[in-house]
Design brief:
- This protein is mainly alpha-helical.
- The chain has one domain.
- The protein contains two helices and two strands; from the N terminus they run H-E-E-H.
- The chain has a two-stranded antiparallel sheet.
- A hairpin with a 2-residue loop joins strand 1 and strand 2.
- The radius of gyration is 19 Å and the shape is flat.
- The chain binds zinc ion.
- Zinc ion binds next to loops.
């Protein structure tokens, strides 16, 4: 009798995270659909406008400051 169990690959769950980035069609700041002509690309993320990129940068700066303050 074979006691060998089929190995399940943990990699099955991994590709989902990568797919989210590839399928990004909305601005992470205002959630508007990003149009090719007006999109603004920074640090691997598309924004609908430079303004939204700036807002996101300020937000992440604030979050980082908060995290640093908690140390
Ligand atoms: Zn936006």
């Amino acid at each position: 009798m074979a006691t060998e169990t089929p190995k399940t690959t943990p990699a099955a769950a991994a590709p989902a995270a990568a797919a989210v980035v590839e399928k990004q069609t909305n601005c992470p700041n205002c959630n508007k659909p990003i149009k090719k002509l007006t999109r603004y690309y920074r640090d691997g993320i598309f924004y609908c406008a430079k303004k939204c990129w700036r807002v996101t940068v300020e937000k992440s700066k604030q979050e980082k400051a908060d995290t640093d303050a908690q140390k």
